[in-house]
Amino acid sequence: MGRALPSRLGNSVWFYVAAVAALVAGMGLGLWLAGGVADSADAYRAMRLAHVHLNVLGWVGLAVVGTQFTLWPTVLRTRMMPGLDRAVRWSLPPLVVGLAVVVAGLLTQRRVVALAGLAGYTVGLALAVGLFVRTALRRPPRTAASWMLGAGMAWFTVVVAGDLVAMAASPRVVDLDDRVARLVPAVAAGFALQTLTGALTYLLPVVFGRGAWGNRRLTAILELGWPLRVGAVNLGVLVLLLVPAGGWVTGTAWWLTGLGLGSFVPLAVVALVSSTRR
Question: pTM for the complete prediction?
């Protein structure tokens, strides 16, 4: 797999290896949780936190960051930045080691260990995001896909920073469970679903467009009203993070977020049906 990529991107394959390892470890913890092996409520919460971190920061986070090294400049239609190979090599170790230390600290309920792991993960993410920002400064995002991918990575950065702050403010490891609940909209909608939508907005026309004309036609369908849709998603997530839960404000924010993301589905159906009628 690494041989199919340019030499400076060969190391990015290890992001996927690490993501799969995190997925397997997360599945193992999930089975333990389901089996009721925890001997106390605190042990259960600590295992659940470790399970969540393996899935969000590991399986999803590492896979997305590794993909962005290639996908981000491609979507922006610009050349890869000088120093890309160094960013790939230098960001992966603190991300992987940091995640492993976080999980160890959570499972053993050692707050200082978990905090150190989160700090290491944050350093690795900052190295990668720094390259993505420099790429965007050279050629700013102008399409639906680029705005969604950029916003998704921004929300992931917010999630990791918020996780770090919440851990620093928690007297005990298990107290993190309640503090990070506010980050769920940013994780699910702002990061994961928005990143997936942005990637599909770019990739569906490439795969099903059958040439330059078809690519442009499908892209036009998928980008219909995109500034309003992207704005709705990110405004909704922002409100959900800042406003206390409950009431019409948060209800409206969820409605905006769901509408912004859900509107992609019928557009994708129309685009795919259109691609078969050429």
Answer: 0.92
